[in-house]
């Protein structure tokens, strides 16, 4: 562990960031994702700078930017749009990408690492291994904040840990059991609780707990995820039996061809049913075909890519072509669905996924014609994160609203513009125009509701669209 990690400045920055989170993002418990704006962007960027400066991983270079740029795009998306759907998904994707970035960049010669199950397993182990650094983190905080030498700091640390354990087990175990056994003791504990809550509000206590927890976890992650490590770069040499592989792949491909032959009448549809439920069932069926068939073919591709004879590799090409045919069919159905019924969150990202999958399968087919072996798993993961990151900084809701407005003007459109009231304040001005054009609709109430949400935000919870849409 580098000495710079134990410097007091690093601890103070971690304390400041934890305090910043508690002060600016506490509204997430009541406002949910609407409380996240440029405050979260600043937090993520500051955390990146802390980990990069104080950690042991190398400074970002050209190879590191492949992972860093998607992370920054997702972080900046919080400052751009209010889109609650994307923000909610980002809360799952952003921590994963953040941890993965530092694990990857802290691995020596990470660009040479072959992405396989062993490497994925090691990344997961390192991701959860930060818990082993909780005790060293507490020690580091204690030494940084309490002067007087290591012995005195250790003593105070042990006293604090002992008190913490005592308070925790008392509140969780002993006090509830003793209170249920004796009413007088329960009444006394109730008076103690009321006294404490009169002196210190419950919310203040919770903020203090979260503040301490965030400080410790920030340093624990810094110690563990940025620690430089070597990983074996041995390449896989195990080959699959050509006869067995050919029988399995050829047999499954035969089933796919038989399936495609029986589906010729419905594979390429040129008109959707009049009934909405029938249309929805047809399109979603095509989408799930895409999802499962593409997933199976990608797994087979990863299993047999460059591990069998040339003839079996040719079967893989047929596999990808068969999948691509269904992908194109699903894309056509989705396009017709959108043409008649307009965009929504679901349909936008479904169509976006179809287009990404088509590009992905074309790339997988191209890899079969290359002389050198491509690290396909690495490519798939990088492509996915870039695909998602770009989507987060697109004005998705405005694209949906403007596209639906254009489609609704067609005489054969089955689109209901009132369904767009599911969108957020990112389209406030467009919704206001819709309300003026249709004064008898519910758009006026929708506009007032979105304005109230924006007015209740603190300045650090604002986004770019909050400023642009405000009049």
Radius of gyration, in angstroms, nearest whole number: 28 Å
The number of helices is: 20
How many angstroms does the end-to-end distance come to?
53 Å
- Main sheet properties: none
Structural domains: how many = 3
The fraction of residues assigned to DSSP E strands is under 5%
Succession of helices and strands: HHHHHHHHHHHHHHHHHHHH
Low-confidence stretches: 1-5
Overall pLDDT score = 80
Shape: globular
User: Helical residue percent?
Assistant: over 70%
Characterization of the model:
With 471 residues, the protein is mainly α. The protein has 3 domains: 1-237, no CATH class; 242-392, no CATH class; 415-469, no CATH class. It is 73% helix and 0% strand. It has 20 helices and no strands. The chain has helices at residues 8-25, 28-31, 38-54, 62-80, 84-105, 117-128, 134-145, 149-181, 183-199, 202-225, 242-262, 264-267, 276-304, 310-341, 345-367, 376-392, 396-408, 428-437, 443-455, 464-469. The radius of gyration is 28 Å and the shape is globular. The relative contact order is 0.10. The model is unreliable at 1-5 (pLDDT under 50).
């Amino acid at each position: 562990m580098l000495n710079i990690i134990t410097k007091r400045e690093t601890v103070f920055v971690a304390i400041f960031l934890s305090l910043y989170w508690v002060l600016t993002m506490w509204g997430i418990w009541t406002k949910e994702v609407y409380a996240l704006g440029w405050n979260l962007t600043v937090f993520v960027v500051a955390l990146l700078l802390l980990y990069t400066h104080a950690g042991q991983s190398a400074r970002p270079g050209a190879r590191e930017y492949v992972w860093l740029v998607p992370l920054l795009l997702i972080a900046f998306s919080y400052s751009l749009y209010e889109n609650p759907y994307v923000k909610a998904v980002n809360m799952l994707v952003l921590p994963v990408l953040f941890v993965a970035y530092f694990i990857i960049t802290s691995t020596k010669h990470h660009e040479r690492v072959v992405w396989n199950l062993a490497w994925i397993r090691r990344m997961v182990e390192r991701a959860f291994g930060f818990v082993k650094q909780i005790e060293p983190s507490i020690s580091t905080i204690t030494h940084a904040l309490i002067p007087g030498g290591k012995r005195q700091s250790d003593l105070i640390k042990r006293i604090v840990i002992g008190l913490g354990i005592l308070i925790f087990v008392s509140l969780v175990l002993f006090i509830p059991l003793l209170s249920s056994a004796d009413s007088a003791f329960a009444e006394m504990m109730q008076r103690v609780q009321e006294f404490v809550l009169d002196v210190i509000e419950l919310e203040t206590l919770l903020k203090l707990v979260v503040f301490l927890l965030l400080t410790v976890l920030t340093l624990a992650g810094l110690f563990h995820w940025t620690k430089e490590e070597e990983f074996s770069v041995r390449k896989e040499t195990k080959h699959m039996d050509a006869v067995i592989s050919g029988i399995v792949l050829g047999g499954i491909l035969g089933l796919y061809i038989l399936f495609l032959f029986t589906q010729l009448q419905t594979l390429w549809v040129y008109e959707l049913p009049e009934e909405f439920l029938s249309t929805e069932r047809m399109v979603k069926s095509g989408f799930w075909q895409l999802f499962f068939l593409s997933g199976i073919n990608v797994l087979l591709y990863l299993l047999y890519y460059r591990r069998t004879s040339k003839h079996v590799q040719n079967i893989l090409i047929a596999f990808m072509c068969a999948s691509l045919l269904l992908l194109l069919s699903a894309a056509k159905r989705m396009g017709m669905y959108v043409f008649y019924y307009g965009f929504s969150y679901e349909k936008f990202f479904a169509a976006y996924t179809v287009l990404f999958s088509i590009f992905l399968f074309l790339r997988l087919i191209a890899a079969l014609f290359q002389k050198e072996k491509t690290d396909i798993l690495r490519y798939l993961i990088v492509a996915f994160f870039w695909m998602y990151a770009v989507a987060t900084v697109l004005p998705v809701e405005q694209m949906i609203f403007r596209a639906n407005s254009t489609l609704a003007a067609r005489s054969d459109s089955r689109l209901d513009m009132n369904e767009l009231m599911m969108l957020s304040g990112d389209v406030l001005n467009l919704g206001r125009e819709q309300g003026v054009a249709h004064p008898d609709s519910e758009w006026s109430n929708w506009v007032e509701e979105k304005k109230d949400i924006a007015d209740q935000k603190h300045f650090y919870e604002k986004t770019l669209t909050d400023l642009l849409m405000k009049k």
